[in-house]
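Cont'd.
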Amino acid sequence: MTLVSGWGRFPVVDSDVLRPRSFEAVGEAVARVTGSVARGNGRAYGDAAIGAVRTIGMTGFDRVRSFDPATGRLRLEAGVLLSDLIDTFGPRGFLPFVVPGTRFVSVGGAIAADVHGKNHHCEGGFGRYVDSILLRTGQSETIEASREQNSDAFFATVGGMGLTGVILEATMRLRPVETGWIRERVISASDLDAAMRALEASDSATYSVAWIDCAARGRDLGRSLIYLGEHAGRDELAEGAAAFPAGKDPGLAVPVDLPSMTLNRYSIRAFNELYYRMGARRAGGNHVVSLYPYFFPLDSLSGWNRIYGRRGFLQHQCVIPEAGARAVLGEILDRVARRGDASFLAVLKKLGQGDGILSFPLPGYTLALDFPVKGDILNFLDEIDRLVVAAGGRLYLAKDARQSRATFEAGYPALSRFKAIRKSLDPAGAIRSKLSQRLFDEV
Amino acid sequence: MTSRKTVLVLGGSSDIGRAAARAFAKAGYDVGLAGRDVAALEPDAADLRARSNVEVGLHKFDVLDTASFDSFVSGLPALPDVVISIVGLLGVQQNAESDLAHATTIMRSNYEGPSLILGLFAEKFLGRGTGTIVGVSSVAGDRGRASNYVYGSAKAGFSAFLSGLRARASRGGVHVVTVKPGFVRTKMTEGMKLIGPLTVEAPVVGDAILRAVESKTDVVYVSGKWRLVMLIIKTLPEAVFKKLKF
Ligand SMILES: Cc1cc2nc3c(=O)[nH]c(=O)nc-3n(C[C@H](O)[C@H](O)[C@H](O)COP(=O)(O)OP(=O)(O)OC[C@H]3O[C@@H](n4cnc5c(N)ncnc54)[C@H](O)[C@@H]3O)c2cc1C
């Protein structure tokens, strides 16, 4: 048994971690115990990638099977990291269509969470660019699933948090790009209304996201910087600039857990003030920036999750349907600002319709906040959840470590359909994670 | 396209071998992968071809079958520019203490085979007047430890062979690189307790090998911290060293 946790380092639980070297060994690992789930690169925050009994590490499966440079279509093993795809195919003119806020996620993990990027509002989630998957089910079968073939299994696996089985391989499409640079425009918004208006008005921008200063209160509540982005063409680069920027390995690392004192309302306030002012100064014009800082601002500091101290932290990411969003987001931000110990920055963005049965996105606004694990935080978040549920919203499973069954059931009405498909793929219930035990397995 | 450089990786199916092959392919080298089980190398060849536009060839090679070395080298379609030996066997020290066959296999896999095959390539390279030879040895060869001296002593022999070969071959335009990776998270070390800050991932080693070849470095400790650690360990007096539980 090994102590395992997600990126938030909460909860920490015992699970038997296995790293099979062949697909046959994956099958054996699944078949031998009841209660296993696949793990990619462990970037889910909570307990999604921890098996009830056994956790199957997949990052050893990192081979590309084939690539067609004419179409950008790729067949690969599920453990390949997006960082690897970007480094390998970026210089050849192809990038993933969808990337989350860190590039250190596996293809399997990106499919299982149907991850969204800054382009979800117009281009959808990761699953949209996946044509088919090779799935090892709990029933010890290996099936190919696509929109046409075994389509139930396909749509339950996209966004299904590993609970339909282990994704072994996938066929996906990459986006042809001229360069690895992004033409960025920063808009500063003085409050929440302005931020939401700016996102609304930028619906046709390929990439858009708002960083909210969640220490700001009163008149400034929801003040933020909105980052819009478009892929830059070759003619937009400075003379002599390489078409593809150099990707740096995360240089700085956080070597130890910082005492949780480091993060307090004063340091957070100060950081946010500085961040907002520096960003606001850049507002207005277009800048061409490398894809790395644009998409993955946090990746330059490896192990930044240790900033929150030994007890870990929680991310709360909700999505609220468009209609009621303004009022609820205002209420949440106000409570968070009054509390004072929330994240450095909150992220606000517009989402479109999700594709998978359990995919998180729905048309509306998503807000993500980080909280160190301490004090009455669990109660506080339960209260926030009540607001989310009342507004018809839901929480993102890839970030969740604590929501209640009731919150989950209210947010995911398609759960019964998902359960039925899961049952048909895995009648004996061999696939189980700590998350599924917490939220919906029969006990 | 004829001017493309070629690298031959002996032990191509190991994690470090795969990582090195990827690093060289990315840098534009055509790649030869050599291993005992050629069919098992197919997926890695496909991976390299999909990732880059280079040519990938597969060759059957068994490091224990020294009698076949001559024909292996002469049977290659062309003499490579760079040859890398990543072959090795950690084995089980406790078993090797009483099982002579096991100890022999460890010694031959880490010293005899790699040294003989690289020696053979050195002759060919010297005849041509160019070439780079890379031997992946181990920090375990810097000083014998109670917990793995069978493996360590074979690596020590291999390191000594490489350093002697380097001294001789450099006069003939041939460069020899010794790589001492320290702890690497691979199949070989799976389940072992590795010290986090001293442990690297295989791709880091692959990139380090490419860099060493291109910059003509002689001895590479993949993580700089190891150079210091081994310096201390090497200079500890034997009387102190033998008392350490290590
Ligand atoms: C800094 C940071 C920023 C982030 N930003 C975003 C963002 O902008 N948008 C977003 O959507 N997400 C974001 N995330 C979350 C992250 O994208 C997801 O959690 C993703 O699933 C992590 O992938 P992973 O390979 O690390 O998977 P893991 O965390 O290891 O696993 C995640 C889930 O995928 C399943 N899984 C993994 N591999 C397989 C497989 N081979 N077969 C079946 N199931 C599998 C696991 O069972 C688990 O349920 C962010 C995370 C971090 C740390």
